Amino acid sequence: PGSVSAAIQEYLQHLGLQDFPCGFGSWNKSRLNTRRSPRAEPAGLEEDVPLGEESPEALLELLRDQHSPWALPPDCSPQDRLLREVAALAPELLHGSRVFQAVKSLRILDKGVEELDEGLLQFQQLEELILSANHISRVTSAHLPRTLKVLELCYNAVDDLKDLCAQPPPELQHLGLGYNRLCGPSQEKQLTVDFWPNLVSLDLSFNSLTDLLELVSQLSTLQNLHILVLQGNPLALIPTYRGFLVDSLPKLSVLDDIHIGPEERQQFHGLAKQPELIRSEAQVVVSIGEIKGLLNPEAFQRLEVGSEGPVISYSYCVTYEF
To answer: Quick one: signal sequence residues (predicted)?
Structure first.
């Protein structure tokens, strides 16, 4: 429980690649036992299907018809549909460990995964790995397939990049680490070209990054970086935040989901050479529109002239929690 291997097994069981109408069984035994060429095999002729078996067309209909009990939900991925159809038409291609060679995209969302174990290495052709909304705090890069191009780890508990950068996938193009617990740039400079030579897109949104100058010094080495998301970090409160990034990273084309045009780049030209404009502090203005449920002090101060009655005073304390 909590390992990515356990979640993978649950995923494969959900696909049912070895169960009717997929896989091997009495519903297709004569067709699979005869090793005839597909060209010599008549297609779509129900009368040529032995009694008790199903034609390839009938098996596909069971998978594709949304009213069928064997149909996948409408929001499933195209890969899931393709794997099911291949398992129905040519189950020998996905038999046993061969299924791991066919999977190029793996999405395991909100499954309680805490650990990335060696089970991922079975996917020798994996290009996209989505593990968002789990409980992952440590990413062991030695357990990541070297073929990965997309790694999404949003909404986890990652607070350090040291393990991830030990043996990072060399071809990775997108790294998603939004909504984690990253607190600041590492002393080892783990967001540089030495670790991510092919990175095109980087999402570090909604963490606790504060040092904009140090972060920019690392990101400026990523020659292929075109998309960057940093919104939600304390450093995004700096008044010159966007302008400094736009001028410091000339190859950047999208920042915080907003396209960088020639006019904006010209507007902030030269700002990268003025780091003194970046302050390590931010000003927050809080205004109170209305407070309800408190006694009105004026009602107790309406005393007649010369009255010896006691004067009652009230004081209130308002606490802001950030």
So the answer is: none
